[in-house]
Amino acid sequence: MRKIPVLEIFGPTIQGEGMVVGRKTMFVRTAGCDYRCAWCDSAFTWDGSAKEDIVQMTSEDIWQRLQEVGGSCFDHVTISGGNPALLSAIDNLIDLLQEKSIEVALETQGSRYQNWFVKIDDLTISPKPPSSKMKTNWETLDDIIHQLEINDRLAHASLKVVIFDKEDLRYAEKVHQRYPKLAFFLQVGNDDLEEIEPQQLSRHLLNKYEWLIDQVVASTVLNRVRVLPQVHALVWGNKRGV
Ligand SMILES: C[S@@+](CC[C@H](N)C(=O)[O-])C[C@H]1O[C@@H](n2cnc3c(N)ncnc32)[C@H](O)[C@@H]1O
Ligand SMILES: Nc1nc2[nH]cc(C(=O)O)c2c(=O)[nH]1
Ligand code: SF4
Ligand SMILES: [Mg+2]
């Protein structure tokens, strides 16, 4: 059985972002990413700083650990990273969790397709705007959305674009216009990953949330959309494992 490189298993907590915001969930965070976003809040998954903490786990190992950490207090697991879409072995983990009547969500940036995308209950695809310094491969993204559509999975998927500035907003408009059938979320970018005082950070992020709301309200393109902060950042700041 192929193993999965895991950096964190934590929860239950709430999903702080996007299409199932507020949902009680466990998190499994995989190691490794094909991107290097300028503002990545989980850079430890790819910058080598946590490489000693990576544990190679089978799906059964992960299920065991989820139960040790979360007891019987969960029925939903969110797989994030890094980019979990780099790992074909996630297929087996999804099957095992769903056999146990656990709903499965997954976060990815849309740079790689996996056949198991069509099994995910809540799939978040988060293409990266110019502020990230990454370049979107539109062909790959088109293919992912096409696969979801022909497999009748659009209702189980969403797009989420993180916004730091007006250029990012124009990018978000382009994404929404290109894929109008998908639920669309705009998320406040956290530009202060060093702040250790949650109250300071939440004040700052709420100001940025107000700015983002103002921008979206004034857009003629961004109508059938939702605007959200990272709720976990408002509550716990930059703390890891929440
Ligand atoms: C850490 S990523 C892992 C999953 C995948 N690599 C991705 O980017 O979608 C999870 C989510 O956090 C978002 N994110 C990362 N850094 C952020 C920041 N500084 N502010 C707001 N959202 C951020 C990403 O855009 C993504 O939607
Ligand atoms: N509570 C909470 N919600 C989240 N939503 C997406 C997260 C992520 O890092 O992928 C995340 C996270 O790390 N914590
Ligand atoms: S794609 Fe996701 S995990 Fe990878 S660098 Fe960007 S935000 Fe971080
Ligand atoms: Mg996060």
TrEMBL record:
<comment type="subunit">
    <text>Homodimer.</text>
</comment>
<dbReference type="InterPro" id="IPR058240">
    <property type="entry name" value="rSAM_sf"/>
</dbReference>
<keyword id="KW-0949">S-adenosyl-L-methionine</keyword>
<dbReference type="InterPro" id="IPR017742">
    <property type="entry name" value="Deazaguanine_synth"/>
</dbReference>
<feature type="binding site">
    <location>
        <position position="40"/>
    </location>
    <ligand>
        <name>[4Fe-4S] cluster</name>
    </ligand>
</feature>
<dbReference type="Pfam" id="PF04055">
    <property type="entry name" value="Radical_SAM"/>
</dbReference>
<keyword id="KW-0004">4Fe-4S</keyword>
<comment type="similarity">
    <text>Belongs to the radical SAM superfamily. 7-carboxy-7-deazaguanine synthase family.</text>
</comment>
<keyword id="KW-0479">Metal-binding</keyword>
<comment type="pathway">
    <text>Purine metabolism; 7-cyano-7-deazaguanine biosynthesis.</text>
</comment>
<protein>
    <recommendedName>
        <fullName>7-carboxy-7-deazaguanine synthase</fullName>
        <ecNumber>4.3.99.3</ecNumber>
    </recommendedName>
</protein>
<feature type="binding site">
    <location>
        <position position="37"/>
    </location>
    <ligand>
        <name>[4Fe-4S] cluster</name>
    </ligand>
</feature>
<keyword id="KW-0671">Queuosine biosynthesis</keyword>
<dbReference type="GO" id="GO:0000287">
    <property type="term" value="F:magnesium ion binding"/>
</dbReference>
<dbReference type="GO" id="GO:0016840">
    <property type="term" value="F:carbon-nitrogen lyase activity"/>
</dbReference>
<dbReference type="InterPro" id="IPR007197">
    <property type="entry name" value="rSAM"/>
</dbReference>
<feature type="binding site">
    <location>
        <begin position="14"/>
        <end position="16"/>
    </location>
    <ligand>
        <name>substrate</name>
    </ligand>
</feature>
<feature type="binding site">
    <location>
        <begin position="126"/>
        <end position="128"/>
    </location>
    <ligand>
        <name>S-adenosyl-L-methionine</name>
    </ligand>
</feature>
<feature type="binding site">
    <location>
        <position position="80"/>
    </location>
    <ligand>
        <name>substrate</name>
    </ligand>
</feature>
<keyword id="KW-0408">Iron</keyword>
<feature type="binding site">
    <location>
        <position position="82"/>
    </location>
    <ligand>
        <name>S-adenosyl-L-methionine</name>
    </ligand>
</feature>
<feature type="binding site">
    <location>
        <position position="42"/>
    </location>
    <ligand>
        <name>Mg(2+)</name>
    </ligand>
</feature>
<keyword id="KW-0411">Iron-sulfur</keyword>
<feature type="domain" description="Radical SAM core">
    <location>
        <begin position="20"/>
        <end position="238"/>
    </location>
</feature>
<feature type="binding site">
    <location>
        <position position="33"/>
    </location>
    <ligand>
        <name>[4Fe-4S] cluster</name>
    </ligand>
</feature>
<dbReference type="InterPro" id="IPR013785">
    <property type="entry name" value="Aldolase_TIM"/>
</dbReference>
<keyword id="KW-0460">Magnesium</keyword>
<dbReference type="InterPro" id="IPR024924">
    <property type="entry name" value="7-CO-7-deazaguanine_synth-like"/>
</dbReference>
<feature type="binding site">
    <location>
        <position position="29"/>
    </location>
    <ligand>
        <name>substrate</name>
    </ligand>
</feature>
<feature type="binding site">
    <location>
        <begin position="39"/>
        <end position="41"/>
    </location>
    <ligand>
        <name>S-adenosyl-L-methionine</name>
    </ligand>
</feature>
<dbReference type="GO" id="GO:0008616">
    <property type="term" value="P:tRNA queuosine(34) biosynthetic process"/>
</dbReference>
<comment type="function">
    <text>Catalyzes the complex heterocyclic radical-mediated conversion of 6-carboxy-5,6,7,8-tetrahydropterin (CPH4) to 7-carboxy-7-deazaguanine (CDG), a step common to the biosynthetic pathways of all 7-deazapurine-containing compounds.</text>
</comment>
<dbReference type="GO" id="GO:1904047">
    <property type="term" value="F:S-adenosyl-L-methionine binding"/>
</dbReference>
<dbReference type="GO" id="GO:0051539">
    <property type="term" value="F:4 iron, 4 sulfur cluster binding"/>
</dbReference>
<keyword id="KW-0456">Lyase</keyword>
